[in-house]
Amino acid sequence: MLRLSNLHVDLSGFTLRADFEVGAGQRIAIIGPSGAGKSTLLGAVAGFVPLKSGQILMEGRDVTGADPDKRGMAMLFQDGNLFPHLTLAQNVGLGLRPGLRLSDIERANVDEAIARVGLQGFGVRKPASLSGGQISRAALARVLLQARPLLLLDEPFAALGPALRADMLDLVKDVVNETGAGLMMVTHSPEDARRIATDIVFVDEGAAHPPSPTAQTLDHPPPALRAYLG
Amino acid sequence: MAVGPLQLSRFGGPLAALTIVGVLGAVTLAVVLQGGTFRLGPGDRAALWFTLHQAIWSAALSVGFAIPLARALSRRQFRGRQALVILLGAPFILPVIVAVLGLLAVFGRGGWVSTLLVAMGLEPISIYGFHGVVLAHVFFNLPLATRLILQGWQAVPAEQFRLAGQLGLDGWTFFRVLEWPVLRKSVPGAFALIFVLCLTSFAVALTLGGGPRATTAELAIYEAFRFEFDLGRAAFLSLLQLAMAGFAAVIAVWLVPSIDTGRGLDRKQIRWDGRRARLRDAVIIVLGAAFLILPLLAIFMRGLPGLFVLPSSIWSATLTSIWVAVLSVALMLTLALPLAGWMAGRKRSGVETIGVLGLALSPLMIGTGAFLLINPFVDPRSAALPVTASVNTLMTLPFALRLLAPAIRDAVEGYGPLAQSIGVKRFSLWRILILPRLRPQIGFAVGLGMALSLGDLGVIALFADPERGTLPLAMYSLMGSYQLDAASGAALLLLLLALLTFWICDRLGRHAAAE
């Protein structure tokens, strides 16, 4: 589904290379030490970090130079996933119409998505009046409506407590199952990876290793990963 | 490659910039063609000398008085401190001619101070001429300097004051260790800024100066234009003004600090120094506050009865003023929004530089150029109001840019990737992200632009037929014909109009943002 071929990022001294493929139905957890380039990898895939060379193919289509919204990907960031001046329904509606002019049917779809993530009746609220977990749910409702083939998560749940984070990961799992999307997520936590990921991409010393099955990799880690996991 | 930072107003921004550069260029060219062959006369030399002389004194006295006032305000907590700090921002939007009338009521020959002096058997004082011009400039700029210095000290981390308190630093040592390093940075900037502002001062010189010994370059342009109708001389003086302001602007770009038009100066800062200087600080604060408040009080006291003897012409002038202000602010937003969007994606220094260069613009030079440009085609009198509105736009544009550009930058830095990833772009980007995030700044900029335009007495004096002028011009002609009661009433009207408009716009912007 996603093919990174000879991807090379060079940000004045910091380099990152990747060359692997993500198949349909694979859910990837990107793990590795701080500063190794986990978020950079995700940013390069999403179109926020410029490439020095290499190609990104999405379902066979070359999206290397495409705008971030034209790559068939939805993304959640560490924070700022909702516009604070818009209501929850408006924020979710952006997933259908970036110009925010919705038809009645689309409005109904928005309400449905909001209900799907368990926020029924919260549509008129502004993000400031929501909890961290509710904000994450609302962002996932938007992802649901965006219905892109690939979902990218750059640690959007890092600020939540362990129980809430587990809930969110389960919800993410449901969302990608419903939309049939692939998943790439950055995480610090091997437990999170075990919970949701089919495969692990280990990023270390300027290189992203190709995906390998989660349980097997975590149970019998190669030396560099072992050093990181401790 | 599409990958990269969000681009805003890729066409609108450069178009707005070209418009502004084009207008300024055409105006300058007209002035150069008309005035380039003139020779410097003795009167011109006197005007140049006076302009520099008063600007240096105004800047030195403003900063000199501001240092003790800022220090007293920074280390004392008292009831009304917050109100006083807010009041320090008021002169910025106070119409110049209103303040002049207030100063005359306090310090003039028949004013409160003179009355007191006469009662004590002393000579009354007069504030026409050099003293008056400097006094008015200090009235406007002492608060500005105080704010700039306070802003500097406010940036000192609380831990440093705590440490100084723990070590028992006080007096001279405290000054040397904590206050001086900040002053060394803020004082040259404050001085340069005030110097530049006073160079192009017109309304103060028009009302309190005049004659061979107290005419600024700006006033000389007006006199050559209005009394002698010598366009060549007016153009030549404009060129001199342009050279002087250009020179000053270069200095200013080096030295002028970023002007914090926003809030935050009322934050409490706890200092442990100056325990034994309570009385001195109290005296300084009372004197500073009185210097600011008494002229405003005088406007209220003299203006209230004056409101009932206002000639009907004042009301039509008020409408004209509102019309000019609305036009000027609409034009300002049309130019400032795309320009700020365009600049926000570029280097930081650009906005700062344009902001400071804008301060050095001479309205009368632009007015003279505009007159020369349109005179062959239409009667300039009929274009007086649009030209005035346009010049007001140019004068307020730097402030608007300084308010809007950083806010756009913040919005894009905070939410740009989100907008990009869900495909919110072009007009949707403005509608969904930028404009809603910018409501407080737009409200503030519109309020500022309205207040400055409402109170402006500059180009309008060059062009307009006094029968169909703006409120400040009508008030000036009342003063000129010694109808002081009516003039005071008009001053109060103008003051309330400017302050209320500013307050309402600022409120609306912040309220909309809080919704």
What letter string, H or E per element, gives the SSE order of chain A? Answer: EEEHEEEHHHEHEHEEEHH
Low-confidence stretches of chain B: 260-264
Number of strands of chain A: 11
The appropriate CATH architecture of the largest domain in chain A is: 3-Layer(aba) Sandwich
Helix proportion range of chain B: over 70%
What oligomeric state is this? Answer: heterodimer
**Could you give the distance between the termini of chain B?**
39 Å
Highest CATH level, the class of chain B: Mainly Alpha
CATH architecture of chain B: Orthogonal Bundle
Q: What is the overall shape of chain B?
A: globular
Series of H and E elements of chain B: HHHHHHHHHHHHHHHHHHHHH
Task: Briefly say what this structure is.
The complex is a heterodimer of chains A (230) and B (515). Chain A has 230 residues and is α/β, with parallel strands linked by helices. Chain A has helices at residues 38-46, 88-93, 104-116, 132-146, 162-179, 190-196, 214-219, 223-229, and strands spanning 2-11, 14-22, 27-31, 53-58, 61-62, 73-76, 150-154, 182-186, 199-204, 207-208, 212-213.
